[in-house]
Amino acid sequence: xxxxxxQETCVGCGACVDSCPVNAIKIEADKAVVAxxxxxxxxxxxxxxxxxxxxx
Length: 56
Hints:
Layout lengths: L3 E2 L9 H5 L5 E4 L2 E4 L9 H5 L5 E2 L1
Antiparallel strand pairs: 1-4, 2-3
């Protein structure tokens, strides 16, 4: 299962985008969006999110 972004908590800072080793995250409408088919569930984005908006 791909990383899940809480859209209410996400501030669209892009820290997760920068930390993703497979470029599976992008910012759309000022919120992070994970491409489920590309996410390798490494957890790098979870640790990089300053608002703890991402979970696995």
